[in-house]
Structures are given as C-alpha cells and as structure tokens.
Amino acid sequence: MNTDLWFLIAFSAVMLCVLAIDLFACQRKAHVPTMKEAAIWTGVWIALSLGLNAVIWQWKGPEKALEFFTGYLVEYSLSVDNIFVFLLIFSAFGVPQRYQHRVLFCGILSALLLRGFMICAGIKFMESFSWAFYVFGAFLVLTGVKMIWHKTEEVDFGNGWPVRLIRRFVPMTDRYHGSKFWIRAQGGRRMLTPLALVLIVIELSDVLFAVDSIPAILGITPDPLIVYTSNVCAILGLRSLYFLLAGLIDRFVYLGPALAVILTFIGCKMLLSDIYHIDTAVSLSVVALVLLAAIGFSLVANRQSPATAAPAT
After folding, report:
1. Rounded to whole angstroms, what are the CA distances from 238 to 94, 216, 243, 263?
2. pTM, whole model, 2 decimals?
3. Angle between helix 255-271 and helix 280-304 axes, rounded to 10 deg
C-alpha cells in the first residue's frame, strides 16, 4: 500500500508539472490553439500514458498493464463523446474560442478531484455491498441499449434549471471580461462573469459523464491505482484532443453506436462474472476492434456522402 501511495504521489507530481508547462509556458496569452499545437500536446499526453503503461508492466506485470491500457482506451474513447457536449456548451454561451482553453484547463483540474472522490466512493460501495457490482453492470447495459435505440436529445444548456438557479441567486455580469471568472464591480462587490457560469456547466456535465465512465472502468479492474491513473490520463488528454477534433467530431458518425456497444459489453461482462470470466486481453481486443470498426465505417460514410453524413445517435 505504501508503494502504491508513493507511486500515486510521483504520478501526480509529474502530471502537474506537465500541466504547469502547458499553462505557463504555452498558454500565457489567451489564444486559439492551432491544429499543430493541439496535435503536439495530444501526442505528448498519449506518450506519457503509454510510458506509464510501460512502468506498470515492469512494476506490476503484464496483467495489470493490460488492465491499465484497456481502461485508458475505454475512458479515452468515452471522453471523445464529451467533446460534442463541450461544443454545445461553448456554442450556447457564445464563448470566444481564445477563452475556451482556460475553461477546459480549470474544468480538468476540478474533474481530477471529482473523479478521485467518485472512484473511491464507487470502490468502497462495491466492497461494502457485493451486489453493487451487478447493479453497475446492469446500469451499463441499460445505458448502452438506450444509446443504441434512442437518439441523443439536444439540451438547452444556456437556459437549463442549474443556470437559471445560479443567475437568480449569484450576482453576475452580462458580458465577458476577458478570461476572468469574476470581477470586482463598483462598490467592491464581487460578480461572476459568464465564463464562470460556463465552467460550472462544464463541471456538471463531467459529473454526468463520470456516472457512465467510472462503472465502465470498474468493470475492467477493481484496482484503485489502475482505475485512477487510467482515468487521469484520459482526462488530461481531453483538452488538447478537443482542439484537435472540434471541427471533425461530426465526421465520426458511428462513434455513438461504438461506445454503446462497448458499454453494453462491459456491463454484460460484469453481470456474467460469476458464470464466465472474460480475460482482460479479450476485453481489450473487443474494445479495440469496435473502435477501429467505428472509425473505418465513419471514413467510408463520409467518403460516400460527405455533405449529408449525420451522427447515428
């Protein structure tokens, strides 16, 4: 346990250092990241994640390394779905592109703490109640089936009840003030800016995504170290991935069905765990094949009908 704790401390320190380099060295001035910049940082986060996977392989063996890689692949794939929601939120609030990076950066820092708390709560819940494992499995199956058979309903993020509640009780400005989340108005009164409201909505959306993603990773491994590190690696790479794929996300027309199949598969794996054990290598193969098939079919669909291709879910 002490070894795991020291590893988590070292892991967190490295990730925070890289985040600090990104923020203070590359993002001092608010600007829209170029495709090249986004691609470089996406590559950096993927390389760090694969490097961590190699460390786990040497330290804990191939089985734990496979669990990490499978969990990372699942979480990273699910995070792509977050990008579409982020686009809707930024569009609903009219957030200038040069300030979106700051919102995502702060949102990711908060998400790390939130995910850590939810992961600990989920693991503790399963340890205390043996039936919780099957509840999570059933929830993933239902979520996957719902994603397959029901189209995603468009949400009015700008006028939802959380936004109306905040605007009613919290003093806010009616316009953006650069990249500031709050300002001091006349009389010394502090007021939130619309950018702070966007950050709150981003955080609320992450809570909803965590409800799906955490049971999914717990269906792959119950190891807290693997669960947390794979989640963190996926989350940290999300910001640069957003700027890399923001203009292309609609082209992945089969991503929704692919994620639905993956969630359903993991849910079934959890429900059948006492009857038939599915190895981590098999789970990794299924996840990878489903994602590759989704990418391949999406490319074919866009090539055949680039102007009319629409998301399948």
Report:
1. 21, 18, 9, 20
2. 0.80
3. 160
